[in-house]
Amino acid sequence: MASTAASASASAAQELDREQYLQELIRGSMLDPPSSSSSRAGRVRPLTDDEIGRFYCEVCMEWKLVFDRFRVSDGCPHAFCVACVVGHIEARVAAGSVPVPCLLAGGGGCSGGGVMHPERCKKLLDIDVFDRW
């Protein structure tokens, strides 16, 4: 009977060791929780809108984030927000007034002679507007 108790005790110890081993494997394969200092060390906090550069759109007269800026062409120094550029192109294409010049060209505000190229504006426009252009 003593050998049976010793055998059961050894079996229980092996089972416990196996259980601990499996739990360690599982813990090792999991990511650290977000609150740990090791995961924060490699992260960069996202920028707020106040920390991102801005520019002034002369068409809608609003300050916009630089991510929303679109330059008309290499020969034109002006930059406008994407919404104003898209509206300008859509109106010119609908009226059949192509090529599409800089948004300030009509009032004499653009001396660079910038003309928008369809391929440069392709990602901004609906495919129907692009096709008509």
UniProtKB/TrEMBL annotation:
Q: Which UniProt keywords apply?
A: Metal-binding, Zinc, Zinc-finger
Provide the GO MF annotations for this entry: zinc ion binding
**Gene3D superfamilies documented for this protein:** Zinc/RING finger domain, C3HC4 (zinc finger)
Q: Does the keyword Zinc-finger apply?
A: yes
InterPro entries, sorted = Znf_RING/FYVE/PHD (IPR013083), Znf_RING_CS (IPR017907)
Q: Which residues form a coiled coil?
A: none
Keyword check for Transport: no
Q: Which SUPFAM superfamilies match?
A: RING/U-box
**What's the protein name?**
RING-type domain-containing protein
Organism expressing this protein natively? Oryza barthii
